[in-house]
């Protein structure tokens, strides 16, 4: 329930701090005093969009905060826990073991420039989170909401809310979304079928060509190395022979003999000077390494083969690889990966054809499941419609419409195409006078009658869909006399199970509140402020009398006010 509302520099309010009670609170005041200003401030705390005149003239910002008791609001507690936005507080009273009230504070700060910040329990949050949480805390019915009851979509939503079959609606939406997704896929496949066929033919040719060439991973690098070796084989053969000649095969002078002679000479001289021994050892190592290099080079030279046929085959495959790579605009070493990519794309196109062939059957199966789910929803709506019709009829008859009849007419949609909301057209029909046939409400009901029917519906739905706090912002417009007393009794009855806040101009409604707030507008000629005062019992009598008689309060009006409050 709502515990407290703090308002600073909002519209014509400089500062307000309102404490709210359980049961029913009525808000009254003179026309134009700003009776709905607290409701507007609450709306901003719940995430509504701010207008340009939100901030009080001359102020830098408007600061609004609403405190709620969520001790018994399981859904709100779960939401706060899931978002890690709980108010930190002790779990119990250490003195008597009672559970502490769990509070939640929603705050909105709006600058004069229009910038807005939102907070939940002191943590800054996106505005969308205020809206999401607000739906679990308060249900606001505006003074024009009774106009919504004549709209078919709203009528369907009201029936579904009364029926409480969200799982059936979700099931219908699931199959509807699957159906639409499949239809969209089919349309896309059919639209691109011709383009896909042309692409498929091209890919088949490309893949077949690459299949026939069948270049393997890392093969091009081997081909390139072989091609370089074979294309320079004559030079390699000649130069390696010359190198062998220099190293060891020249009888007149070669490197190995020269080094060996140096080693032998220095080894002999080392007997006379030991420093030459290290040098001789280094030259000996060089001789060993040079002999190894000479042996390896001889073996390499001996293995060289000048095979023109093998070279021709390597040259041809190497050239083909380069040509194919140039044709497909990729590097030659990337051809195997590109080949695999084209093959996968071709398989995908082939899969699209297979998908296209089977998709029509899938659509029919999904459509059948949709209509089965829609029929279950229709049956549930039919059952709920009978119950709702009976309840609303009984309720409006107690609201000074003694001959009123209300019925929920459900007919199949004119189109057999799946709809996200099922296959039903829902229409609220009423009869106001004896002998009058049931007709759509906007045809036979006046504004006041619509307001009463809407209020009856709201009370029934509020009883069905429990909300911690219900706010009615002048929903009694167009109602007067005995009907107003009945409306007040209905709201008071509703307040037995939930907190009800009602902005009203009717004394018959105002007197039913457990708490009454009075809104006044004060001005000094230059500045205007709105104040909200909780009325004492004596002040309530005077305010009810004012509502009864206007500005001139008489002894008779005071007596009538006392009688209303006593009743």
From TrEMBL:
A Pfam family hit: SMC_N
Residue ranges annotated for the RecF/RecN/SMC N-terminal domain, each copy included: 2-522
Gene Ontology cellular component terms for the protein in this record: bacterial nucleoid
InterPro entries (alphabetical): DNA_recomb/repair_RecN, P-loop_NTPase, RecF/RecN/SMC_N
Gene3D superfamilies on file: P-loop containing nucleotide triphosphate hydrolases
UniProt-listed GO biological process terms: DNA recombination; DNA repair; SOS response
Signal sequence coordinates: none
Coiled-coil annotated spans: 169-208
Lineage: superkingdom: Bacteria
GO molecular function: ATP binding
UniProt keyword list: ATP-binding, Coiled coil, DNA damage, DNA repair, Nucleotide-binding
Function: May be involved in recombinational repair of damaged DNA.
Family, per entry: Belongs to the RecN family.
The protein's name: DNA repair protein RecN
